Amino acid sequence: MRNVYGDPSKIDAATLRRYVDFFYGEGTRAAIGKKVPTLDFSEVDTDVLKTLDVPALVLWDARNRWIPTAHAAEFASRIPRAKSVMDAGAHPPPSRRNSPHRNLASITSSSHR
Question: How many Å from the N-terminal Cα to the C-terminal Cα in the chain?
Fold first, then answer.
């Protein structure tokens, strides 16, 4: 979890429980361990992303060592109106609901660039 959060102090007991429940689900750990860090975008059909006609923000935590930061730009490049923002404090999806003020600051600042 430290590889995802970057800041271990952000991991509370409820968040830890969600991760444990998720990662110890049948087959989950093996599947994620094989796929996420080695994802090759040339092998993934992302054509549907080209059809999106809305502004999109790909918010990525720059301290995330588990999912490579290069994935953010790669993902955003497939959405016509997307912007990729690296933020050293953008928390991963399970915890974003716990820090909306932090994510709002990232969203607001990126919309004025």
Answer: 31
pTM of model > 0.85: no
Count other C-beta atoms under 10 Å from residue 58's C-beta.
Answer: 19
Conformation bin of residue 6: beta by default, left when phi > 0, alpha when psi is -120 to 50: left
Q: Which helix (H) or strand (E) holds 82?
A: strand 82-87
Question: In the structure, what pLDDT confidence band is assigned to residue 112 with cuts at 50, 70 and 90?
Answer: very low
Tally the C-alpha atoms within 13 A of residue 84's C-alpha that lie toward its C-beta. 16
For 90, counting Cβ atoms within 10 Å of its Cβ (0-12 exposed, 13-18 middle, 19+ buried), the class is: buried
CA 7 to chain centre: 15
